[in-house]
Design a protein that fits this description.
Number of strands: 23
Structural class: alpha/beta
Radius of gyration: 25 Å
Low-confidence stretches: none
Mean pLDDT: 94
Distance between the termini: 55 Å
Shape: globular
Bound molecules: glutamine
Number of domains: 2
Length: about 525
């Protein structure tokens, strides 16, 4: 029988439910179990593709081209669960499907309702997601907070699920907050109320993960247990770790969370192998050096908008046993900055991330130029690569007006443009290139050296491409095209000549980096930054 773990959240948002759910996944995998992670998001957007980074953080792209919630990135980094379209469920998708079936007459004239039709579709999708990798346990993270109107159909579906599959095959984990008030006193009331709110809709949590600034003592656990009907052993203190989030699975394991979950699911407890995670934490805690990376972006103030890049940089550090300190540089501020030498004096490398729209672009171009001329290691990702190309075209290839048609449609030297603009064909429609595709890497290029193989598969999310019309001019001016699509049509990677470490990539390597398996390009970039110190 397949097993299910539902992870809900209470008290307030942003408690790190994604990381909590993923950490449970990590622990189950340490016990040799196959898992599948699923995120259900209570919003009406069909996917996260249209959502602003200001509202929703980064859009995480899967191999099969789904634009999803950033928690799927956590799943990828913490576990080997499949992350595809199927693992990201939204209310928008659920309603779209139910309404489609209704229009097709599949409900045979019945009144179509939230219960049972919406809840049935939710359950169908959860079951279907878990069939992908033949997993033994499906872990479902329910977005939102208990008490939200939007979450109700999901919680109702979860309640029904226990009936459908049997209470012995399901575990309800509830993540709450135990705040500290004046005098450093913990307050359990919000947790009591939140567990009560869950019980009111028919769900008795089996495990409570209590977020708090400091570890909860036995007395607090006992009190929470008393008021919530959760065994004291199943009240887990999910305190703030001072180092890395990759320590969280170990914090849970130390309190026996994995033992509890396995017991509740009727699965045998075997000694877990946590060594890979212990190694990550050990390297993180004992770095041999610190490397500073300047991140030149426009959503820099928002912690979650470059989530995967921040994590991938950290993994690059782990690969080299160093700590990576990220220095945020707002590309718009950079446009006004006079003293660039001072600004970049302290950093050992710069990273120009992806993005959309014109704002802040000139600042990124300035940063790329500075890095190129001053031999500062530079990694450009997606938009970042396009910026490296524009800067090179202007400064070296003599195309003073070079730009992307995304920012200047009337540019006289559109070195980056839509494919339809380059090939004078109409049927591309400016659609986004999304998901995993193949690239060929050129012998002798830095990128090839990093990957150690000529054939790579990486995920894309962009509309614009380096223009096929300008490639020759740029190459003649010395720009190295280190990677292309297999047909050699589109530029996938560039490198500056006579420079210590530079690579721009049209794809998103950050989505496929794990702490236990750092991405070769980030490992190489951090190595380049260390060498440059
Ligand atoms: N805006 C650029 C494009 O659409 C880059 C996109 C990105 O960085 N993801 O091509």
């Amino acid at each position: 029988m397949k097993k299910y773990v539902f992870v809900t959240g209470g008290v307030c948002s942003s408690l790190g439910k994604g990381v909590a759910a993923a950490s449970i996944g990590t622990l189950m995998e340490c016990h040799g179990l196959r898992i599948c992670m699923v995120k259900v998001d209570p919003y009406l957007n069909v996917d996260a593709g249209t959502m602003s980074p200001y509202q929703h953080g980064e859009v995480y792209v899967t191999d099969d081209g789904a634009e999803t919630d950033l928690d799927l990135g956590n799943y990828f980094r913490f576990t080997s669960s499949p992350v595809t379209k199927k693992q990201s469920i939204t209310t928008g998708q659920i309603y779209q499907e139910v309404i489609r079936k209704e229009r097709e007459g599949q409900y045979l004239g019945r009144t179509v309702q939230v219960i049972p039709h919406i809840t049935d579709e939710i359950k169908r999708r959860i079951v279907s997601a878990g069939t992908d990798n033949d997993s033994e346990i499906t872990i479902i993270e329910v977005g939102g907070t208990v008490g939200d109107i939007e979450s109700i159909p999901y919680l109702e579906a979860a309640r029904q699920f226990a009936h459908d599959v049997g209470r012995e095959n399901i575990v309800f984990v509830h993540l709450t907050l135990v705040p500290m008030v004046a005098g450093e006193e913990f307050k359990t009331k919000p947790t009591q109320h939140s567990a009560k709110a869950l019980r009111e809709i028919g769900i008795q949590p089996d495990v409570l993960l209590c977020r708090s600034a400091k570890p909860l003592n036995d007395e607090m656990k006992r009190k929470i247990s008393l008021f919530t009907n959760v065994n004291k052993d199943s009240v887990v203190s999910a305190y703030d770790v001072d180092g890395t989030i990759y320590e969280i699975p170990l914090v849970y394991a130390n309190q026996g969370l994995d033992r509890m979950v396995l017991k509740k699911l009727g699965l045998e407890y075997t000694e877990p192998d946590k060594s890979r995670w212990e190694k990550v934490v050990d390297i993180y805690r004992n770095p041999v050096d610190v490397v500073k990376i300047g991140m030149v972006g426009k959503y820099i103030d928002l912690t979650d908008s470059y989530k995967s890049i921040n994590e991938a940089l950290c993994h690059g550090g782990i690969a080299n046993k160093v700590e990576v300190e990220i220095v945020k540089i707002d590309s718009e501020d950079l446009e006004k900055e006079k003293d660039l030498d001072k600004l970049f004096k302290d950093v050992d490398g710069i990273l120009i991330p992806g993005g959309f729209g014109k704002r802040g672009i000139e600042g990124m171009i300035t940063a790329a130029g500075w890095a190129r001329k001053n031999n500062l290691p530079c990694l450009g990702i997606c938009l970042g690569m396009q910026v490296m190309v524009i800067e090179y075209a202007r400064a070296v290839a003599g195309l003073a007006d070079a730009n992307s048609t995304e920012f200047m449609p009337e540019s006289e030297a559109p070195v980056v443009s839509l494919l339809e603009e380059q090939l004078d064909v109409k049927d591309y429609g400016g659609t986004m290139r999304l998901g995993r595709s193949e690239s060929h890497l050129k012998e002798g290029s830095l990128i090839r050296e990093c990957y150690g193989t000529p054939l790579i598969y990486e995920r894309h999310r962009h509309r614009y491409e380096v223009s096929v019309k300008y490639r020759e001019v740029l190459e003649e001016a010395g720009l190295i095209v280190g990677g292309t699509t297999p047909d050699n049509q589109l530029v996938e990677s560039v490198q500056w000549p006579n420079h210590c470490w530079s690579t721009g990539v049209q794809f998103h390597p950050e989505f496929t980096s794990k702490p236990t398996d750092p991405h070769p390009l980030f490992a190489g970039f951090i190595r380049g930054a260390i060498d440059n110190k």
